[in-house]
Design a protein that fits this description.
Layout (H helix, E strand, L loop, with lengths): L9 H6 L3 E6 L5 E4 L1 H7 L3 H4 L4 H5 L8 E6 L5 E13 L2 E9 L4 H15 L4 H15 L3 E9 L2 E6 L5 H7 L22 E3 L12 H6 L4 E8 L5 E9 L7 H24 L17 H13 L3 H4 L1 E8 L2 H8 L1 H15 L8 E6 L2 E7 L4 H14 L4 E3 L2 E3 L3 E8 L6 H17 L5 E3 L6 H13 L8 E10 L5 E12 L3 E3 L1 H11 L2 H21 L6 E5 L2 H5 L3 H12 L6 E6 H4 L3 H14 L2 E7 L6 H6 L4 E4 L1 H5 L9 H12 L3 E4 L5 H10 L3 E2 L10 H8 L12
Parallel strand pairs: 16-17, 19-21, 21-22, 22-23, 23-24, 24-25, 25-26
Antiparallel strand pairs: 1-2, 1-5, 3-4, 4-5, 6-7, 6-10, 8-9, 9-10, 11-13, 11-16, 12-13, 14-15, 18-19, 18-26, 19-20
Helix pairs in contact: 5-6, 5-9, 6-9, 12-13, 15-16, 16-17, 18-20, 20-22
C-alpha cells in the first residue's frame, strides 16, 4: 500500500482501526484499501482494488456521509457510518473514505471510557476488566473473558462472571493447547471462532466438564489485533445455551475485542505500566494498587448503591513465625497455596488481592449487609482449615477476617478498606482465627494506627515531615556546641505527631529506612548551611533506628548523604540506642568502625536504661555516651548526685568517651551534672526543640552561655 494512493497518510491509513478506502476522484475505482477494510468486506486488498464504489455500496447514488448498507463477498449486508474527504496524489484527485460500524450505546460507552482511562494512564488490566464488565451488563445472557497472549501462553486478564476453576485452567496455558488453536478459524491466528455446542465439540474435551459445570454451553471468540496485525489476545463470550450470537451481539464482541486490542497495544507501545506493577509477584493476585483501583471503580459504578458492596480483610495469623523458622521460600509457597484456597471460597465476580505481606483483601459486589459479609468471611476462614503441605512441612494457617459493608461502614474506598482492616485487627486481639465486622466503637487507637500506616509512606514527599533542633552546650565553657535533630510529623488529620506515635509503625512496616534516609539528608543539609555561615560550626546529632542500622548499605547511605550535602563528616553524629547494638556485637562493631573511617561521630543514646553491659561497651567504638534523662530527673538539689549517674560519667571517661546529660530542666540539675564532669548539656533549661528559623535566630548569632544571659 503506497502512501501516495492513500493521500500521503500511508502510516495512519494502514494502521487505522477503521476501514479505509482511497478512490479515484473521477471513476470512483478503489485505488487502495487498508487491512481493516479487507476484514470488513471479507476480501483481500487486491480484490477490493478491482472494484468500484458502486459495487461495494450496491447503490448507483452512494451515501458519502452518514449511515449506509454495504455488502460483503458472501452477500451478507452490514451497516456502516461513512465519512469522506478529498486528497491529491501525483496530480490525481482522490476521495478518501472512512467506514465505521454504527455505534450502539454499549460501543459508544466502551470507546469513551477506554479513551478516558488510557488518557488517565490507567493500567491495561483495569481497562480490560471494565470492557468485560460493560459487555456483561449490556448482554446479561453472556459472560465475557479477556485473555492476553504472552510468550506463547494465555494470561487471564478479566472475566467478571467466569468461574474460578475455568479461569485457572486457561491461565498460563500454551496457545497450542488452547481450545481450537489448531483450527484454521482460530482467534489465536487472527480469525473469529465459534463453538456452537461445547458439549459436542471435541476441541473442548479437556475443559468440557469445567465449562458445563459453570453453566456454559457455547463460546464465540474474537482476536485482539494491533494496528500492525499482531495478535495481542482473545476476547471470548460464553453462552448459557446452544444458540448462535445475534447480529448485535456479534458486533458488540468485535467492538469489545477492538477496544481491548487498542488498550493492550497502548500498554505495549508506552511500556509504562506493566503487568508486574499491578500484581503480587508471589501469588499473581492483584496487588494493593490494583485492588484499590477495583474498589474505586466499583464504588463509582452507577447503581451499585442498591446492590451493596463489602470488603473482607484477611490476615494470615502467625505466618511470620513460618518465615522466621523455615525461611522465606517456605512462607512464600505457603502464601501462594493460601491464595489458591481463598479464591474458590469467593464468587466468580469477586476480586481477591494481596494488600500487605501477610494480608489479603476481597471485594464482594452485591453483598449489602454485615450478616452476609460475615457469612462470606466465615467461608473464607474455613477454606484454610485443612493443613498445608509445603516442601515436606505440614503447616496450619488460620485467618483473622475483618468485614466492612457499604454504606454502613463507609462510603469512600479508603474508609471501607481501613475499617475492614481495623475489624481484622480487632479479631487478632480477641483470639485470632475468627470473623469480626467493623464496629464504630472499635478502639480509636487502632484506627489511628492504621491511619498512620496507610499514610506514612508518602509523608516525606508530601512535605509533612520536618526536623526540630534542640541545642547542646559545652559543660565546661557553656558555648553552643551542637544540636540534636528531632523528627516530627505534621499529619493532615491527626496533627503534630511525635516519634513515639509513628516510629514503631515505621519500623514494623520497614518505612523507617526511607524516612530515616530523609531525616539524615535533611539534617546534613541544614548543618552544612549553618557551617557555611559560621566561624564555629556546630555538630548535628541524628537519631538512627535499629532497623536502619541493621540494613545492609547503611554506612553507604551515610556516605552518600555527606557527599550529597557537602557536610564535613566531623559535624555529623549518629545516635543509636543500646538495643541497636546489643544483638550481633561483632556486626555492630564493624559498622561503627566503618562510620569512624568516614569521619562521622557516634553516640549511644539512653545509656543506663537498657543492657548497659561494660563488656560490649568496651568493644564498641562509640565516641559519646548519652546519659538517660531518668538520671537527670532524680536530681533535686545541687548536692544531690545519684551514685549510678556519677558511675556512668566515671566509667565513660575511663573508656575515653564523652558524656551528654539530657533532660536538664533546673539550675540544680545543671550544677549537679557539671560537678560530675558531664561534657555536654541538653534540656529545656536551655531551650526546647525548635524549628530552623527559631533555632538560628536565638542561638547562632553569638555564642550562648549557660549563665543568665543564656536564659
Amino acid at each position: 500500500m503506497s502512501a501516495e494512493a492513500s493521500g500521503g497518510a500511508g502510516q495512519w491509513f494502514e494502521a487505522s482501526p477503521w476501514a479505509g478506502l482511497a478512490l479515484d476522484g473521477d471513476t470512483l475505482r478503489v485505488l487502495a484499501a487498508n487491512p481493516a477494510a479487507a476484514r470488513l468486506y471479507g476480501r483481500t486488498p487486491e480484490q477490493l482494488c478491482q472494484m468500484n464504489w458502486a459495487e461495494l455500496s450496491g447503490d448507483a447514488a452512494p451515501v458519502w456521509e452518514g449511515r449506509a448498507v454495504h455488502r460483503r463477498e458472501d452477500g451478507s449486508a452490514f451497516e456502516v457510518e461513512v465519512a469522506t474527504g478529498a486528497a491529491c496524489a501525483d496530480g490525481r484527485a482522490l476521495r478518501v473514505v472512512q467506514l465505521k460500524p454504527p455505534a450502539c450505546d454499549m460501543e459508544g460507552t466502551l470507546a469513551a471510557e477506554v479513551v478516558e482511562m488510557l488518557a488517565g494512564r490507567q493500567a491495561v488490566e483495569p481497562i480490560l476488566f471494565r470492557i468485560a464488565e460493560l459487555f456483561d451488563r449490556r448482554f446479561p445472557a453472556l459472560a465475557s473473558a479477556a485473555l492476553l497472549l504472552a510468550d506463547g501462553r494465555l494470561v487471564h486478564a478479566a472475566a467478571p462472571r467466569l468461574g474460578v476453576p475455568l479461569r485457572h485452567s486457561l491461565d498460563g496455558l500454551p496457545i497450542e493447547e488452547a481450545p481450537g488453536s489448531g483450527e484454521p478459524a482460530s482467534p489465536y491466528w487472527g480469525e473469529s471462532a465459534n463453538t456452537a455446542d461445547i458439549a459436542a465439540d471435541p476441541r473442548w474435551s479437556r475443559w468440557r466438564a469445567l465449562a458445563l459445570d459453570g453453566g456454559l454451553r457455547g463460546c464465540w471468540s474474537e482476536p485482539m489485533v494491533s494496528g500492525a496485525g499482531e495478535i495481542l489476545g482473545v476476547f471470548s463470550v460464553f453462552l448459557a445455551r446452544v444458540r448462535p450470537l445475534d447480529r448485535a451481539e456479534r458486533r458488540a464482541v468485535r467492538a469489545a475485542a477492538h477496544m481491548a486490542g487498542l488498550a493492550v497495544e497502548h500498554r505495549n507501545l508506552t511500556g509504562e505500566l506493566t503487568y508486574q506493577a499491578f500484581h503480587d509477584p508471589v501469588t499473581g493476585l492483584p496487588n494493593r494498587i490494583l485492588f484499590e483501583e477495583r474498589l474505586r471503580q466499583a464504588l463509582a459504578r452507577p447503581g451499585h448503591e442498591g446492590r451493596g458492596l463489602a470488603i473482607l480483610y484477611i490476615h494470615l495469623d502467625r505466618i511470620s513465625v513460618v518465615a522466621d523458622l523455615l525461611g522465606r521460600q517456605v512462607s512464600d509457597l505457603l502464601l501462594d497455596q493460601a491464595a489458591r484456597r481463598l479464591e474458590p471460597a469467593l464468587r466468580g465476580g469477586d476480586t481477591l488481592g494481596r494488600v500487605r505481606e501477610h494480608d489479603f483483601a476481597a471485594l464482594l459486589p452485591g453483598v449489602g449487609s454485615p450478616a452476609a459479609a460475615d457469612a462470606s468471611g466465615e467461608r473464607v476462614r474455613q477454606s484454610l482449615a485443612a493443613p498445608f503441605a509445603v516442601l515436606g512441612h505440614e503447616l496450619t494457617v488460620t485467618a483473622s477476617v475483618g468485614a466492612a459493608v457499604y454504606p454502613v461502614h463507609g462510603t469512600e474506598a479508603a474508609a471501607l478498606l481501613l475499617n475492614a482492616e481495623t475489624a481484622s485487627r480487632a479479631a487478632q486481639r480477641t483470639g485470632r482465627n475468627r470473623v469480626q465486622s467493623f464496629q464504630p466503637e472499635m478502639s480509636a487507637r487502632t484506627r489511628q494506627r492504621l491511619l498512620i500506616e496507610s499514610t506514612l509512606g508518602r509523608a516525606a514527599e508530601r512535605g509533612e515531615l520536618n526536623l526540630l533542633y534542640q541545642p547542646q552546650f559545652d559543660g565546661a565553657g557553656g558555648r553552643l556546641c551542637g544540636a540534636e535533630a528531632l523528627l516530627r510529623w505534621n499529619h493532615p488529620e491527626i496533627g503534630l505527631s511525635s516519634p513515639a506515635a509513628f516510629i514503631p509503625v515505621a519500623e514494623e512496616t520497614g518505612l523507617i529506612v526511607e524516612i530515616g534516609r530523609w531525616a539524615l539528608v535533611e539534617a546534613c543539609r541544614q548543618a552544612a548551611r549553618w557551617a557555611a555561615g559560621s566561624e564555629r560550626p556546630i555538630r548535628v546529632a541524628v537519631n538512627v533506628s535499629p532497623v536502619q542500622f541493621d540494613r545492609d548499605g547503611f554506612v553507604e547511605s551515610v556516605a552518600e548523604a555527606l557527599r550529597e550535602t557537602g557536610l564535613d563528616p566531623a559535624l555529623l553524629e549518629i545516635e543509636l540506642t543500646e538495643g541497636a547494638l546489643a544483638g550481633d556485637i561483632d556486626r555492630a562493631a564493624l559498622t561503627l568502625g566503618r562510620l569512624a573511617e568516614l569521619g562521622a561521630g557516634t553516640a549511644l543514646d539512653d545509656f543506663g536504661t537498657g543492657y548497659s553491659s561494660l563488656s560490649y561497651l568496651q568493644r564498641l567504638p562509640v565516641g559519646v555516651i548519652k546519659m538517660d534523662r531518668a538520671f537527670t530527673q532524680q536530681i533535686v538539689s545541687e548536692s544531690d548526685r545519684p551514685p549510678l549517674a556519677s558511675g556512668i560519667v566515671t566509667l565513660a571517661h575511663a573508656l575515653g568517651r564523652r558524656v551528654v546529660a539530657e533532660g536538664i530542666e533546673t539550675e540544680a540539675q545543671r550544677a549537679a551534672v557539671c560537678a560530675m564532669g558531664v561534657d555536654v548539656l541538653q534540656g529545656f533549661l536551655f531551650g526546647p526543640p525548635s524549628d530552623v528559623g527559631t533555632f538560628a535566630s536565638r542561638w547562632l548569632p553569638e555564642t550562648a552561655r549557660l549563665a543568665g544571659a543564656s536564659r
